[in-house]
Amino acid sequence: MTQITESAPSVVDAPALTAADRCDSCGAQAYVRVTLANGELMFCAHHGKKYQEKLAAVASNWHDESARLSEARA
């Protein structure tokens, strides 16, 4: 589970991601939405984790629904 700290982007109440939202890196279903000064990026759980450290410095908001993947297995 990712912990958001004061120095990291804040988590906001954003519309839920749907199956129509796709990862900008690979096209898989998006579970992470990153808001930047000039737009948004969406990532699957894998790419969200991969780029989180780099994007944390420039993102204004980080919306992560990757926990839904664990809920689906339960």
From TrEMBL:
<feature type="domain" description="DUF7455">
    <location>
        <begin position="17"/>
        <end position="69"/>
    </location>
</feature>
<dbReference type="InterPro" id="IPR055878">
    <property type="entry name" value="DUF7455"/>
</dbReference>
<dbReference type="Pfam" id="PF24254">
    <property type="entry name" value="DUF7455"/>
</dbReference>
<protein>
    <recommendedName>
        <fullName>DUF7455 domain-containing protein</fullName>
    </recommendedName>
</protein>
